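Trying the structure run again after the queue cleared.
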Amino acid sequence: MLPIRKALAASVLSIVPLAVSAAPAVADPQLSFVVTPPSYVNSEGQVLLKTEVTCTAGAEGSASAYAQQTRMGILSAGSSFSSIECTGAPQTIWFTITAFSGPGFAPGPAGAQLSANACDAFGCAFLDERTTIRLRR
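Done. Tokens:
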């Protein structure tokens, strides 16, 4: 039985591993998200916030906008949400932000926070930006 073991060991040792080539590196999707002035406040005290989002074609994601404004010591704050289907070209998204606290928004400065994400088969990209907007009628 000893010769069979030697033959078996020799055949196992002679197996050559297959060469594995690494796939080319693929980057996470690209994502940009900005406020494009002007921003408005309507007669119901809602913010109409115009934004532009660009992300890698084929990715999918979501975007949200949050606004807050203090008038006479009272805070108004609200948010809005939108899904994104990325095309690779800039897309305009209008957010209608209704105050969930306070009396509502009025013309003047307000704080805004934009958050967005886009994911494809290779990964995800995330953005979170804060800015000041000027609301007008």
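DSSP finds one helix and eight strands in the chain. Worth checking whether this holds up in the mutant runs.
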